[in-house]
């Protein structure tokens, strides 16, 4: 079910300049604020989600545990925690902002992503047993070296922003919490 939702529109300094309807933002390629949550466990595995086959763009592609947008009257960390619960059913998780990157991508269906993306990292040790099937097709834990090889061998399996995120992790030499 599609819900009208207004998301934070920003300038190139990541300052909120207003709120616009999410689909309009993606149709016009308006710069907006987003977040990506990377979840790791003590086995050096990352939690991936495969996007629902009915998503408005990038359906069926693998990506980080959770990503979305900040709404009016919530902080970006509140937005991230809200979506982790809505998509994966995780109620309590500690998030640490690691870095921010910007990217722009035009999809074959005519929509755009033009985002300043705040990346949060978290530890989580349980399996995801139930998830929101309107948002998520599947989830899996994967060892980081195996993930890097998969991305190299089959980049078309992954969302555009996740590949950018992983390049940023490598370039910045980000070390994940143990």
TrEMBL record:
Keyword presence, Zinc-finger: no
Pfam families registered for this protein in UniProt: NUDIX
Pathway the protein acts in: Isoprenoid biosynthesis; dimethylallyl diphosphate biosynthesis; dimethylallyl diphosphate from isopentenyl diphosphate: step 1/1
CC annotations in GO: cytoplasm
Enzyme class name: isomerase
Keywords: Cytoplasm, Isomerase, Isoprene biosynthesis, Magnesium, Manganese, Metal-binding
Active site: 67, 115
GO BP annotations listed: dimethylallyl diphosphate biosynthetic process; isopentenyl diphosphate biosynthetic process
UniProt entry tagged with the keyword Secreted: no
Membership in a protein family: Belongs to the IPP isomerase type 1 family.
Protein name: Isopentenyl-diphosphate delta-isomerase
Organism: Clostridium manihotivorum
Biological classification of the source: Bacteria, Bacillati, Bacillota, Clostridia, Eubacteriales
């Amino acid at each position: 079910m599609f819900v009208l939702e207004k998301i934070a529109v920003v300038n190139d300094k990541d300052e909120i300049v207003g709120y616009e309807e999410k689909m309009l933002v993606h149709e016009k390629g308006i710069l907006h604020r987003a977040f990506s949550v990377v979840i790791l466990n003590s086995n050096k595995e990352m939690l991936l989600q495969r996007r629902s086959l009915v998503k408005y763009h990038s359906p069926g592609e693998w990506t980080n545990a959770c990503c979305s947008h900040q709404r009016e009257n919530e902080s970006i960390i509140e937005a991230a925690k809200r979506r982790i619960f809505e998509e994966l059913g995780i109620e309590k998780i500690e998030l640490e902002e690691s870095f921010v990157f910007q990217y722009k991508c035009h999809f074959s269906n005519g929509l755009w992503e033009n985002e300043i993306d705040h990346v949060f990292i978290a530890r989580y040790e349980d399996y995801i047993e139930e998830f929101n099937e309107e948002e998520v097709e599947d989830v899996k834990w994967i060892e980081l070296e195996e993930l890097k090889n998969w991305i190299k061998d089959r980049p078309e399996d992954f969302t555009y922003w996740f590949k950018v995120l992983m390049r940023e992790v490598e370039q910045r030499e980000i070390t994940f919490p143990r």
